Amino acid sequence: MDHPREKVLSAALEMIGEQGLSKVTMAALAARLETSGGHLLYYFGTRDGLFLETLRWSEQQYAVERAPLLEAAAAGEGDLASVLELATIYLPVDERDPRWQLWLELWARAPYDADLAAAQRELDQRWHTDLLQLLDLLPGLTDREGTSERLRAMWDGFAIAIVNGGGTALRARVVEHTRAVLDAFTSGCP
């Protein structure tokens, strides 16, 4: 390929953020990269294949952002602030967050595509595992598995609302909702 894989995936993510997922075609992306659509199809197979690889690549970037929190947790350092920081990494940055635009589109397609559904479960599992590591450091929390599921479901629901127009004000409120939920769970209230 004339362009490194990361350049293609980065360009795809940029286009999604600028134009929305529906406007990103192999031909448009190829034009931006000054290559051919056939060249992209050769490496990614389909538009959906490109989108899934873009999502995986994007998730790798978020794993890098989570790494310092997890390293601190492995050293026994971390607290509620660490979980709140993870929430800020998880949530969309704004209405046009391309990673979340991808997630939403691919979630809608997953029931009809077993490979896509499996990939999404794998990516979700990584977030779950990382969140569990941080929750292990919260004293008084008795149901870490259930808390992780509840928090991620809450974050997913609010993420949809943020992307659908809730914006950064809602994003800040989600972090406060997370704090309130964890305060209640760690004080013994269900």
Automatic annotation (TrEMBL):
Q: Which residues bind DNA?
A: 25-44
Specify the HTH tetR-type domain's residue ranges.
2-62
Q: What is this protein called?
A: Transcriptional regulator
Where do the coiled-coil regions begin and end?
none
Organism, scientific name: Nocardioides aromaticivorans
Entry keyword annotation includes Repressor: yes
Q: Which InterPro entries does the entry mention?
A: BetI_C, Homeodomain-like_sf, HTH-type_TetR-like_transc_reg, HTH_TetR, Tet_transcr_reg_TetR-rel_C_sf
The keyword Transcription is annotated on this UniProt entry: yes
Source organism superkingdom = Bacteria
Q: List the PANTHER family.
A: HTH-TYPE TRANSCRIPTIONAL REGULATOR RUTR, HTH-TYPE TRANSCRIPTIONAL REPRESSOR BDCR
Q: Which Pfam families does this UniProt record tie to the protein?
A: TetR_C_6, TetR_N
* Keywords for the protein's UniProt record, in alphabetical order: DNA-binding, Repressor, Transcription, Transcription regulation
